[in-house]
Amino acid sequence: MAFDAGPENEPVTSINVTPLVDVVLVLLVVLMVAASGAISEALPLDLPSASTGSSTESSLLRIGIAADGSLSVDGQLADLATVRHAAERATAQGGDARAAIAADGAARHERVVEVLDTLRSGGISRLAFQVSPRDR
Question: For the chain, what are the domain ranges?
Answer without folding.
Answer: 67-129
